[in-house]
Amino acid sequence: MQTINIHEAKTHLSRLVEAAAKGESFIIAKAGKPMVRVVALDAPEPQARRRIGFMAGQITVPDDFDRMGKVEIAALFDGDA
């Protein structure tokens, strides 16, 4: 994505708007710091990041999960290790 300084954006606004309308989004920066992103109105919205349950159906948990390592853990707490 192209970054344009605000002064250059003011100078070439018509050209930049045409490019954005064709799908070429860009960022306008002030003193090198990004301020806004310009995109076409009909551009698809970025999908929200989905975190909870993102691996649903891709992993399985063993039935004895809560008992795994029980002997080893008990040995660590009893000082037998």
Tell me what the structure shows.
There is one protein chain. The protein contains three helices and three strands; from the N terminus they run E-H-H-E-E-H. It is α+β, with helices and mostly antiparallel strands. It has a domain of 37 residues: YefM-like fold (3-Layer(aba) Sandwich). A three-stranded mixed sheet has the order 1-2-3. Strand 2 and strand 3 form a beta hairpin. It is elongated.
Summary?
The chain is an alpha+beta fold and 81 residues long. It has helices at residues 6-11, 13-21, 70-78; strands spanning 2-5, 26-30, 33-38.
CATH class descriptor of the domain at 2-38: Alpha Beta
Distance between the termini: 57 Å
As laid out across the biggest beta sheet, the strand order is: 1-2-3
CA radius of gyration: 27 Å
List the helices and strands and how they pair.
Blueprint: E1 2-5, H1 6-11, H2 13-21, E2 26-30, E3 33-38, H3 70-78
Features:
3 strands, alpha+beta, 30% helix, YefM-like fold, 81 residues, 3 helices, single chain, 19% strand
